[in-house]
What does this fold into?
Amino acid sequence: MNLSGLAPTAKLPGYDRKELKSGILHLGPGAFFRAHFAPFTDAAIAAAGGDWGIEVASLRTAEVADHLNEQNGLYTMLIRDTSGTTAHVIGPILRAHVATRNPGDLLTRLEDPAIRIVSLTVTEKAYGFDSATGGLDLKHPDIAADLVNRHAPRGVIGYLVEGLARRRAKSIAPFTPLSCDNLPSNGAVLKRLVLEFAGRIDPQLRHWIEEKVPFPSTMVDRITPASTQATYRDAERLTGRQDLAAIETEPFTQWVIEDHFANGRPEWEKAGALMVQEVSAYEKMKLRMLNGAHSLLAYLGYIAGYEFVRDVMDDPGLAALARRHMNAAAATLDPVSGIDLEAYADELIARFANKAIAHRTYQIAMDGTQKLPQRLLEPATEALEHGARAETYAVAVAAWMRYALGVDRNGERYELRDPRAAEIAALLANVPRNGGAVSKALLGLPGLFPAALTGNVAWTEDVANKLEILIQDNKLPLF
Ligand code: CS2
It folds into this structure.
């Protein structure tokens, strides 16, 4: 793809791409990155300039990287609303690397002083985070492999530590690692993992990182369904070019970033990002109200036979339940500067109901063991501590448990797509399919449920009762 001759219906980058030099290396060029980080950076460069071109690196599959390289880094972002679809060609990606094909290449890029930010959208499960301890999961396959073979890493923590070690050895200023995944205090979590990993291989390196490297946390938000044939078709119709890296997303976008960078940053505020000292209040709000309700709707919706979130929102009982859950989640939050939580919840309901967005319940349902703690289990624990019944949390957990059985309402099997899927299947193998037995087994999944929840008899009974209804009927009558 090049920019000349693109159909006039597409909005093009507002700067000269030929002049752009690399400043950012991004790990994980999935659809969410292409709908969020890249367009924010595109708009920041258009508004304020700077050498903030992005090189991306895929740590697993090659497909997206190959398409991006074939297209000269360009791709189409479709914004869908009920009033129609607009196409924006996004410009800041300069090159794509595939780590599994050429790991040395990625390590060389991590050493380049021009790279001042290494950002990440790699999903929760890639971090090697143990939610029970808050530290490094030594059994995580990437962490275990990279601790043994630190100079030839394969996971994100291994790459970041090796990249920082090489810079330190060559007296090159560090880059700023920037986590853009849906984890609470994602920068602080990343810092803890990187320091723990570095401390195990070289305490002096750990000390250097602790002194020199900021790990800003961020809150990221934009609903981005996986691309489909309809995405590629509409991208071609609106730009006049075939585009296999096209993505589609909603009009809403939000980014809150802690303004602590070692070595400069794009002027993202010119693109609408909010630069703050402390992001955790925003992050908690988004994880608990948006993502918590999303997971609730995804599990209940999937087992009730709804393909998309917008279909779930057409069910008045489930839409009302989502709103109730948002209220319950809001009750666990401290006030968030500049935000009216009622209005925020109303907006979330409208976003979930957007008829132009085909967001699969099955997509959101994946990786439940990685998502439940921050979205549902931590706020449920706090709600119970404050004397609430935490009933919508019991519904959500029961729905996840029903989903974890891996058999739909027609008796068809589906894949859980969870890094702990095998463990879950083994745990449930000889368990009778009733609410009491299944919930007891899953509450015992090591490290997942906090003791404050498993030890709360009234709440676990509530979960078991709701699960029993879901096992019988695939739908809860009470809402
Ligand atoms: C969703 C998120 O798939 C999921 O788990 O809850 O990807 C959600 O769409 C985004 O966080 C919205 O910003």
About this structure: The longest strand covers residues 75-81. Residues 182, 221-223, 290-291, 294, 363-364, 371 surround D-mannonic acid (CB under 6 Å). Residues 280-472 form a domain with the N-(1-d-carboxylethyl)-l-norvaline Dehydrogenase; domain 2 fold (CATH 1.10.1040.10).
